[in-house]
Amino acid sequence: MSTSITLKQINKLAIPALIAGVAEPILSLTDAAIIGNMDYEATTSLAAVGIVGTFFSMLIWVLGQTRSAISSIVSQYLGANQLNAVKNLPAQAIFIITILSLLIIGMTYPLAASIFKLYNAAGPILDFSVTYYQIRVFGFPFTLFTIAVFGTFRGLQNTYHPMLIAIVGAVLNIALDVVLVYGIDGFLPAMHIKGAAYASVLAQVVMALLSAFYLRRKTDIPLLVKLPFNSEMKRFVFMIANLFIRTLALNLALYLATSFATKYGENYIAAYTIAINLWFLGAFLIDGYAGAGNILSGKLFGAKDYKNLIELSNKLIKYGIVVGVLIATIGAIFYYPIGRIFSNDEAVLSEFYKVFWIILAMQPLCALAFIFDGVFKGLGKMKYLRNVLLFSTLAVFVPIVFWTDHLDYKLYGIFIAFTFWMIARGLPLIINFRKTFISLAKNA
């Protein structure tokens, strides 16, 4: 790719990736919005969804790193015009990750109550958490399958078909949520929190089927597993191992935040559930440009086109900040109506409104961190990503969240810790990238 990277090229990848990326947070937000407005145990159910959502996100992020690893390897081979050498890698990766997901179901299903007690869940909140999780977990293998296929498409510089799949999944989940949670008079009884779980599973199954269909019809990447393992499997496994450690650090931060919010009381964990899911939504909106950075940086790095790699990073910084500011501005304009989408409990809303402004203010910082996170994944620099997140979590987030808890800042403290966490995640990536590739571009 010798010509200059244009905004049109970036947006052609970023906008579909953005739409596809919001599928998972929309599934969680839909559950939160529908459940938060039930007539039956709404606040308790909303708290349970927040706790399970945090744990479920951890599982997805730990094993869903196949998307980044597959995308990085495929895009680099595409840039080097050697794609045939890795055509059998995606099927092998999907097979391995699916087996792991089945093992996790077998281990976590009978231990659900013990797991959620670690999040300080008790009484009705614990009962609802177990009920919700023991249904929704069966969608886990289908989610991981879809994520792995999305990684293959990304490596091939295709974000359009993942977008179509994600739209279908999100729309289906919303429709099923309304029908199954509230029921249909005289035809289908209201299933409440169970209905939300079944809706998510069914949507994930449909997305997996569509992913398999489009991969077969639109690419020549096979889904049939063939041995021996691809020569890049070793690098793939090391990437996954580094991302696994990195994701454990990420989820330590989320675990502590959820655990503290639960400790503060039912209204706090319900408010935190709304706030953290909106933060996830903002993150996944920005992830469209992070996805473009992932896709294009891998291809440019494979082609050794370092000048365009620097130009890409400069443009992504600019576009990411614009998107972050835009998200923050929209959130500020609709500050109070947004809260009422998810709950009509004034005590819950009061706590949410106290901290929502912090989430909005974080968005430009999140943009820079997430975009360069995507760029480094495209470059295959998973070890450096691991080290940065270990530092930002253990040396920044953990001390701050315990300190602010000691000061009794409650949700303020949690989101202050998240803000400094994002700064510590983003700055080292930007500095390292520019130090490395500006010199390479000059010598190219």
Automatic annotation (TrEMBL):
It comes from the Bacteria. It is a multi-pass membrane protein. Signal peptide: none annotated. InterPro entries: DinF-like, MATE_fam, MATE_MdtK, MdtK-like. The chain crosses the membrane at residues 42-63, 93-112, 132-151, 163-184, 196-215, 236-257, 269-296, 316-335, 355-372, 384-403, 409-433. Keywords: Antiport, Cell membrane, Ion transport, Membrane, Transmembrane, Transmembrane helix, Transport. It is found in: Cell membrane. Pfam families: MatE (PF01554). PANTHER family: FMN_FAD EXPORTER YEEO-RELATED, MULTIDRUG RESISTANCE PROTEIN NORM-RELATED. Belongs to the multi antimicrobial extrusion (MATE) (TC 2.A.66.1) family. This is Multidrug-efflux transporter.
